[in-house]
Amino acid sequence: MACPAKCAADSLMTIADGDILHYLAYGSNMLRERLAERVGQVGVVGGVRLTGYRLGFNMLSRDGSGKCNASLTGSARHSLHGVVYRMTGEQKRLLDHYEGPRYESRWLEVGKAGGAMKIFTYVGREEHVATGLSPYSWYKAFVHAGALQHRLPGPYIAGIAASPTIADPDGERHQRNVQVLRATQYADIVD
Fold first, then answer.
1. Over the stretch 135-175, which tens digit does the pLDDT of each residue have?
2. Helix or strand or coil: residue 59?
3. For the CA atoms of 35, 36, 41, 45, what is the dihedral angle to 10 degrees?
């Protein structure tokens, strides 16, 4: 995926376990409970908007469904909203495992009150980005719940809610993920 000038590949960075990092979640990891299940407790820094990016469920997962992707458009008309979390280098390595080889870790600089902040996020590798994909209902519910939890803009949340879904053919996986949602106040948003 093409990257703006202030973006670097993860391989250019040396990260120690105790380093404090800032992670931009824009998909299912926006939901605190989902992220905590994967890497333990993290701190919330706040919401962020990336201009020139668009959210899409166009990253082809190993299971055949669509997962979230930050698609670079370069257009000022497009914005991707997300949540910045504070975590350790050790937690990032855990998250790298979950995000797997279909995503690559990228470093960006974003403007925040008080100056620029260096953050990392995951973008779908070009060979795994496709059109015509839809997420499983439980996956979209994680994204929707995370957007609600962090009070992202209403029209942005409505766009997530309106995205079509497909049924997960693996009933056990569906139930396991719905259980995470049931532990939150957003249990009723699964299709």
1. 999 999 999 999 999 999 999 999 999 999 999 999 999 99
2. strand
3. 30
| The CATH fold of domain 7-189 | Hypothetical upf0131 protein ytfp (3.10.490)
Amino acid at 177: N
- Kindly report, residue by residue over 81-106, the tens digit of the pLDDT: 999 999 999 999 999 999 989 999 99
Instruction: Map tokens 């790298």 to a residue.
Output: 96
Residue recorded with tokens 């994680």: 142
The DSSP result for 68-137, as a single string, is EEEEE---TT-EEEEEEEEEEHHHHHHHHHHH-TTEEEEEEEEEETTEEEEEEEEEE-GGGB-SS---BH
Q: Whole-angstrom distance between the N-terminal and C-terminal Cα of the chain?
A: 32
- Say which amino acid occupies 58: N
Dihedral, 149, 69, 20, 35 alpha carbons, nearest 10 = 40
Ranges of each domain in the chain: 7-189
pTM of the predicted model as reported, rounded to 2 decimal places: 0.90
Q: How large is the C-alpha radius of gyration of the chain? A: 16
> What is the C-alpha to C-alpha distance for residues 25 and 83, in angstroms, rounded to an integer?
5
